[in-house]
Amino acid sequence: MEVKTSLVRLIGSLIVGVVFNNLISAQTFNHIENIAGLGILEENNGASVADYDQDNDLDIFVVAKRIDEAGVEKSQSRLFRNNNDGSFSDVTEQSGILGTITEEETILNAALAGVKYGASWGDFNNDGFPDIVLTYSLKVQLFMNMKDGTFEDVTLTAGIQATNTCINPSSTWFDYNNDGYLDLHITSWGPCEDARL
User: Fold this and answer.
1) How many of the other CB atoms lie within 10 Å of CB of 10?
2) Per DSSP, what are the bridge partners of residue 82?
3) pTM (2 d.p.)
4) Which of 85, 97, 110, 149 is 20 to 30 Å from 189 at the Cα level?
Protein backbone atom coordinates (compact mmCIF):
# COMPACT_ATOMS: atom_id res chain seq x y z
CA MET A 1 0.00 0.00 0.00
CA GLU A 2 2.83 2.38 0.92
CA VAL A 3 4.63 1.62 -2.36
CA LYS A 4 1.42 2.26 -4.30
CA THR A 5 0.90 5.61 -2.53
CA SER A 6 4.50 6.63 -3.18
CA LEU A 7 4.14 5.67 -6.85
CA VAL A 8 0.94 7.70 -7.20
CA ARG A 9 2.68 10.73 -5.59
CA LEU A 10 5.68 10.33 -7.89
CA ILE A 11 3.50 10.15 -11.02
CA GLY A 12 1.47 13.13 -9.79
CA SER A 13 4.66 15.13 -9.22
CA LEU A 14 5.94 14.24 -12.68
CA ILE A 15 2.66 15.31 -14.33
CA VAL A 16 2.64 18.62 -12.42
CA GLY A 17 6.33 19.13 -13.31
CA VAL A 18 5.76 18.47 -17.01
CA VAL A 19 2.67 20.72 -17.17
CA PHE A 20 4.38 23.52 -15.22
CA ASN A 21 7.55 23.20 -17.30
CA ASN A 22 5.53 23.45 -20.53
CA LEU A 23 3.72 26.52 -19.23
CA ILE A 24 6.89 28.43 -18.41
CA SER A 25 8.85 27.33 -21.47
CA ALA A 26 6.27 27.96 -24.18
CA GLN A 27 7.43 28.85 -27.66
CA THR A 28 8.38 32.49 -28.16
CA PHE A 29 8.77 34.55 -31.32
CA ASN A 30 11.14 37.41 -32.06
CA HIS A 31 10.93 40.14 -34.70
CA ILE A 32 13.59 39.31 -37.28
CA GLU A 33 12.31 41.21 -40.30
CA ASN A 34 15.40 43.44 -40.41
CA ILE A 35 17.76 40.48 -40.17
CA ALA A 36 15.77 38.55 -42.79
CA GLY A 37 15.84 41.43 -45.31
CA LEU A 38 12.16 42.31 -44.92
CA GLY A 39 12.65 45.47 -42.82
CA ILE A 40 11.62 47.87 -45.59
CA LEU A 41 8.04 46.63 -45.48
CA GLU A 42 5.32 48.86 -44.07
CA GLU A 43 1.67 49.62 -44.88
CA ASN A 44 0.86 46.32 -46.57
CA ASN A 45 -2.40 44.54 -47.23
CA GLY A 46 -1.19 40.99 -47.42
CA ALA A 47 1.29 38.43 -48.60
CA SER A 48 1.33 35.27 -50.66
CA VAL A 49 4.00 32.58 -50.65
CA ALA A 50 5.17 30.13 -53.31
CA ASP A 51 8.40 28.64 -54.60
CA TYR A 52 8.39 30.73 -57.79
CA ASP A 53 11.99 29.82 -58.74
CA GLN A 54 11.67 26.09 -57.94
CA ASP A 55 14.67 26.01 -55.58
CA ASN A 56 12.76 24.19 -52.83
CA ASP A 57 12.08 27.14 -50.50
CA LEU A 58 9.13 29.50 -50.22
CA ASP A 59 9.43 33.00 -51.61
CA ILE A 60 7.13 35.90 -50.60
CA PHE A 61 5.12 38.45 -52.56
CA VAL A 62 3.95 41.34 -50.34
CA VAL A 63 1.06 43.56 -51.44
CA ALA A 64 1.48 47.26 -50.59
CA LYS A 65 -1.68 49.29 -49.89
CA ARG A 66 -0.90 52.48 -51.77
CA ILE A 67 -0.85 53.61 -55.37
CA ASP A 68 2.63 53.11 -56.84
CA GLU A 69 4.69 56.28 -56.41
CA ALA A 70 8.23 56.57 -57.79
CA GLY A 71 10.74 56.81 -54.95
CA VAL A 72 8.22 55.94 -52.22
CA GLU A 73 9.32 52.53 -50.91
CA LYS A 74 6.15 51.74 -48.97
CA SER A 75 3.96 52.23 -52.05
CA GLN A 76 5.61 49.35 -53.92
CA SER A 77 4.43 45.75 -53.75
CA ARG A 78 7.48 43.50 -53.57
CA LEU A 79 8.72 40.05 -54.48
CA PHE A 80 11.28 38.57 -52.07
CA ARG A 81 13.38 35.55 -53.06
CA ASN A 82 14.20 33.18 -50.22
CA ASN A 83 18.00 32.86 -49.93
CA ASN A 84 17.59 29.56 -48.05
CA ASP A 85 19.67 30.90 -45.15
CA GLY A 86 17.00 32.71 -43.11
CA SER A 87 17.10 35.82 -45.28
CA PHE A 88 15.31 37.21 -48.33
CA SER A 89 16.41 39.38 -51.27
CA ASP A 90 14.17 41.97 -52.89
CA VAL A 91 14.01 40.90 -56.55
CA THR A 92 11.03 43.05 -57.55
CA GLU A 93 12.86 45.05 -60.23
CA GLN A 94 14.45 42.01 -61.84
CA SER A 95 11.12 40.15 -61.77
CA GLY A 96 9.25 42.67 -63.91
CA ILE A 97 6.34 42.99 -61.46
CA LEU A 98 6.55 46.79 -61.36
CA GLY A 99 4.26 49.81 -61.59
CA THR A 100 1.19 47.77 -60.97
CA ILE A 101 -1.44 50.49 -60.42
CA THR A 102 -1.95 54.19 -61.09
CA GLU A 103 -4.32 56.74 -59.56
CA GLU A 104 -6.59 56.62 -62.63
CA GLU A 105 -7.14 52.90 -62.05
CA THR A 106 -8.43 53.19 -58.49
CA ILE A 107 -11.39 54.08 -56.39
CA LEU A 108 -11.18 54.53 -52.64
CA ASN A 109 -13.69 52.76 -50.46
CA ALA A 110 -14.41 52.87 -46.76
CA ALA A 111 -14.45 49.11 -46.27
CA LEU A 112 -10.90 48.22 -47.34
CA ALA A 113 -7.60 49.91 -46.55
CA GLY A 114 -5.68 51.16 -49.58
CA VAL A 115 -6.20 50.31 -53.25
CA LYS A 116 -4.11 47.13 -53.68
CA TYR A 117 -5.56 44.08 -52.00
CA GLY A 118 -4.42 40.59 -52.87
CA ALA A 119 -1.95 38.24 -54.49
CA SER A 120 -2.51 34.61 -55.32
CA TRP A 121 -0.06 32.10 -56.81
CA GLY A 122 -1.18 29.37 -59.19
CA ASP A 123 0.37 27.52 -62.14
CA PHE A 124 -2.29 28.31 -64.74
CA ASN A 125 -0.29 26.97 -67.73
CA ASN A 126 0.94 23.76 -66.04
CA ASP A 127 4.63 24.42 -66.71
CA GLY A 128 5.63 23.67 -63.11
CA PHE A 129 6.32 27.31 -62.21
CA PRO A 130 3.73 29.30 -60.21
CA ASP A 131 2.24 32.40 -61.83
CA ILE A 132 0.72 35.25 -59.82
CA VAL A 133 -2.51 37.23 -60.02
CA LEU A 134 -2.81 40.62 -58.29
CA THR A 135 -6.14 42.18 -57.35
CA TYR A 136 -6.83 45.87 -56.84
CA SER A 137 -9.54 48.44 -56.79
CA LEU A 138 -10.80 48.50 -60.43
CA LYS A 139 -7.98 46.33 -61.79
CA VAL A 140 -6.65 42.76 -62.00
CA GLN A 141 -3.24 41.63 -63.32
CA LEU A 142 -1.95 38.17 -64.21
CA PHE A 143 1.81 37.75 -64.42
CA MET A 144 3.14 34.57 -66.07
CA ASN A 145 6.32 33.07 -64.63
CA MET A 146 8.90 32.96 -67.44
CA LYS A 147 10.96 30.31 -65.55
CA ASP A 148 14.04 32.57 -65.40
CA GLY A 149 13.17 34.78 -62.43
CA THR A 150 11.10 37.19 -64.54
CA PHE A 151 7.37 37.59 -65.06
CA GLU A 152 5.33 38.88 -68.01
CA ASP A 153 1.95 40.61 -67.77
CA VAL A 154 -0.40 38.30 -69.70
CA THR A 155 -3.67 39.63 -68.32
CA LEU A 156 -5.28 40.43 -71.67
CA THR A 157 -3.87 37.47 -73.63
CA ALA A 158 -5.19 35.15 -70.90
CA GLY A 159 -8.68 36.57 -71.44
CA ILE A 160 -8.89 38.54 -68.22
CA GLN A 161 -10.38 42.03 -68.27
CA ALA A 162 -7.60 44.18 -66.80
CA THR A 163 -9.66 47.14 -65.65
CA ASN A 164 -13.27 47.09 -64.54
CA THR A 165 -15.75 48.89 -62.31
CA CYS A 166 -15.32 46.37 -59.49
CA ILE A 167 -13.48 46.39 -56.23
CA ASN A 168 -11.47 43.17 -56.52
CA PRO A 169 -10.36 42.21 -52.98
CA SER A 170 -9.01 38.72 -53.67
CA SER A 171 -8.73 35.73 -55.94
CA THR A 172 -8.18 31.99 -55.69
CA TRP A 173 -7.10 29.20 -58.01
CA PHE A 174 -8.81 25.80 -58.31
CA ASP A 175 -9.66 23.30 -61.03
CA TYR A 176 -13.36 24.13 -61.46
CA ASN A 177 -14.05 21.77 -64.38
CA ASN A 178 -11.56 18.98 -63.55
CA ASP A 179 -9.63 19.39 -66.82
CA GLY A 180 -6.21 19.41 -65.15
CA TYR A 181 -5.76 23.19 -65.47
CA LEU A 182 -6.26 25.71 -62.69
CA ASP A 183 -9.18 28.10 -63.09
CA LEU A 184 -9.22 31.53 -61.48
CA HIS A 185 -12.00 32.97 -59.33
CA ILE A 186 -11.81 36.73 -58.74
CA THR A 187 -14.00 38.06 -55.97
CA SER A 188 -15.56 41.42 -56.58
CA TRP A 189 -17.99 43.85 -55.01
CA GLY A 190 -19.01 47.43 -55.34
CA PRO A 191 -20.51 48.99 -58.46
CA CYS A 192 -20.41 45.74 -60.48
CA GLU A 193 -21.51 43.26 -57.77
CA ASP A 194 -20.40 40.14 -59.65
CA ALA A 195 -17.84 37.49 -58.87
CA ARG A 196 -16.10 36.09 -61.93
CA LEU A 197 -14.61 32.75 -62.91
Assistant:
1) 10
2) 88
3) 0.79
4) 97
